[in-house]
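Sequence and structure are kept together here, with a separate record for every protein. An example record follows, reproduced without changes.
>
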Amino acid sequence: MDFLEKLDFLMKRYDLNKRSLSRKSEIPYTTIDNWYKRGYENLTLPTLRKLATYFNTTLDYWFLDEITDPNYGKSSGFKVEYTEMEHIKKYRSLDAPGRSHVDSVLDWETERVAQAKESSDTIEHLQQKLTIHPTPPRFFAYYGKIAAAGTSVEFSDIAAGVRVYPENEINKGADYVIGVNGASMEPEYSDGDIVYVKKTEDLNVGDIGIFQKANNIYIKKVGETGLISLNPKYPGLTADGDRILVLGKVLGKAENN
């Protein structure tokens, strides 16, 4: 099928005449009419692109007489562009040594591009891993669920486990983490929460800290006149003749992990 035979075939399929094709494809009517009167030797690439776009075909469908299926190349994604057709014509004009030389260059360049893509994919993979893990993890000594009342051992004697958290603005100054036991600091800290703690003995009014009284560990807020619970149902912490030690300042709640 030559160009006009393909055009006639598609015009009949879509019930078009020269004027309706001109209007819908935005190709001048005189151009289409001249194809039938004077031939299509002066057919231009921009005009072919308009036909290919309107009829939803590939360009090579119009270039190659042996291609008769308008759907050729669309499902496989294989399309021959105009410049590629020119290269094919030149290749066919070469003798055997010339074709062998072109084949060698194509093989070299294909291998080079494949290697470059492999390197690029490796770099992209590493970048994705860095994006997924933008900050290094931190390891914290973990003193179980003890920050309330009822612990019957010295804080310094409690065996610490290890918890790992991504480094962030809250925990970058923390020295260890500790679990909350009970509801005395609700709603800010609930039973089972884990908090970041910075080792310090200096606390200001409004700070929340970890305290030791006798053999018990507490989490309380520093008030104007003493250590208080956030939950009004629970009493504050008073010395009652025992020394209260400051073990650290609570910096915030740790993420679940």
